[in-house]
Amino acid sequence: MHVLQNNDIDYWRKFSSEYYAPCAKQRWCLSMCKNISQQALDLFTETAMESWCCSICGSKSSKGFEVTYEALPRLFKTNFESGMLDEIMFLGLPQEHIFPSGLIMLEYGKVVQESVYEKFRIVHEGKLRVIFRGDLKIVYWEFCAQCHEEFLQHQLIARQINDFVEAAQKYKSGIDNFDGSLSKDMHSSCNMFVTAEHQLARSLQLSLVNDLGFSRKHFRCLQISEVVGTMKDLITISQELGIGPIECLKNYSKLKEGKETRTANSGVTTRDGSDDGQEVLQFLDGHGELNRTLS
């Protein structure tokens, strides 16, 4: 995937329609990432915190997000509006599983996902699971990230590094020759060292991305998508069960789980007339024939 000259929503709608099934979901799990700050955790919505579970690592730590088919075009567009120039995935050899219905699942034990910006790159490493329909459209895409790193161009911070090294050397020289009294040169070297340190720290801060390695617009789009999706679920559940919106909101996680179970057991088809979404759901829940085919 790479940026086009005309980054309009119609292009991304066509892109999503070409490569994703209407029942598709895309999920990111960050449960295995260490040293996630509280500020980063605050980015996840309360509903996601209550209901999130990764089907790859099995974690219920609530550190993850999910995007439905309807929200994919806007998310793709937002990524490139946020300064991302290219998105690359480096894949190894996958393990392949074919379901009785013809669905194909590829599991990658190690994947490197790289987001390229003008002056830096963000790299996530982890595991990937992709499930395709028979026509090779994606039904389910989940990436379980284990770590992420940020790489800056050398020329972006070269001057600040040189200033910092020079200031550190002068400060060390002053310490080595310290005679018990704080001279003017010693005081100047100390101030120079502190200033150089602050300048280098500011240069290392990536204003376009957050602590998780995603653009701020990207996460805002995810939050809006999560809120809209939750509102749709609340309306549907409220109508199906005949309960009020406040009660529905208080018990959202439990009611949503019950709704998914009822849907899977009822054999309701997806909007495109297939039961792909339900088969994937059965697999992820570890039930039925799908799970036995993988054992």
From TrEMBL:
Top-level lineage group: Eukaryota
InterPro entries for this protein: LIM-bd/SEUSS
One Pfam family hit: LIM_bind
Protein known as: Uncharacterized protein
Biological source species: Cuscuta campestris
